[in-house]
Design brief:
The chain is α+β, with helices and mostly antiparallel strands. The protein has one domain: Arc Repressor Mutant, subunit A, CATH 1.10.10. Helices cover about 65% and strands about 15% of the residues. The chain has a three-stranded antiparallel β-sheet. Helix 3 crosses helix 4. The longest helix is centred in the C-terminal third of the chain and has 15 residues. The protein is elongated, with a radius of gyration of 14 Å. It starts with a helix and ends with a helix.
Length: about 100
């Protein structure tokens, strides 16, 4: 039987499993907080694509977003990233 935690873990992995999204996560981790426009410029990616990728990461709880006036700022949910890392350990031990 597939557990809810296993399904959630797979969704989280799918959200990360794109090079652009991995770069977004890395950049947010380095910057601490950065807006969509800043991410777009830093990564040399279209703003619409960055926005969509951030939304996907936000939907699974990896990235937190906060709207301030006309800008959306992103921070990394470090607890979620640790949970994903622990998921690999659980998976390797057959507990997930």
């Amino acid at each position: 039987m597939i557990t809810k935690r296993t399904k959630d873990f797979v969704k989280e992995l799918k959200a990360i499993a794109k090079e652009g999204r991995a770069e977004i996560i890395k950049t947010i981790a380095q910057e601490g907080s950065i807006n969509i426009n800043g991410l777009s410029k830093k990564l040399n990616m279209a703003q619409s694509g960055v926005s969509q990728d951030v939304q996907r990461l936000s939907n699974v709880g990896i990235v937190n977003t906060k709207r301030i006036k006309k800008e959306t700022y992103c921070t990394l949910n470090k607890a979620k990233m640790q949970q994903i890392g622990a998921g690999f350990q659980c998976l390797s031990e057959g507990y997930l």
